[in-house]
Design a protein that fits this description.
The protein has helices at 14-18, 21-38, 43-47, 54-67, 73-78, 83-87, 94-109, 115-131. The relative contact order is 0.17. Helices cover 63% and strands 0% of the residues. The chain is globular, with a radius of gyration of 15 Å. By secondary structure, it is an all-alpha fold.
């Protein structure tokens, strides 16, 4: 794969800007958790979360901000991100991962972002989603 260049998604904070900055990330996260609350396919993953989603929303927004090339908000508040150990206590297989990605797809589909960025984002977000899996 060629090295990313200025203007490419994934280069510095280009992806964060494409998402609408930190306010855009927060909107995405709120839409994501709204979908998780709403979708029957997401019932199992919703049950893995606390009843009050405030901290979950904050953690996902902080993670995504840094992951999209912005400030490392997660590290600032909670330390280094360790996706596999953070999810080790949960039973996450392909169906749970797919439900999570469905919620994310439905959330990003509601965002005012470019179609090519939407496709890029969903392709790339599958990487940490796969890393969160704890069972085949």
């Amino acid at each position: 794969m060629a090295e990313r260049q200025p203007g490419d998604y994934g280069y510095e904070d280009t992806s964060l800007k494409a998402m609408g900055g930190e306010p855009g990330v927060r909107t995405l996260v709120d839409l994501f958790y709204d979908e998780m609350e709403r979708l029957p396919e997401a019932r199992t993953i919703r049950e893995m979360h606390p009843s009050d989603l405030s901290i979950s929303r904050d953690k996902l927004a902080a993670f995504l901000t840094g992951w999209l090339g912005g400030p490392k908000r997660y590290r600032e508040r909670w330390g280094p991100i360790r996706i596999p150990p953070a999810h080790a206590h949960l039973k996450i297989g392909a169906s749970e991962r797919d439900a999570w990605l469905l919620c994310m797809q439905r959330a990003v589909d509601q965002m005012p972002v470019a179609d090519d960025f939407r496709a890029y984002f969903m392709r790339e977000i599958a990487v940490p989603a796969n890393r969160a899996m704890t069972r085949p």
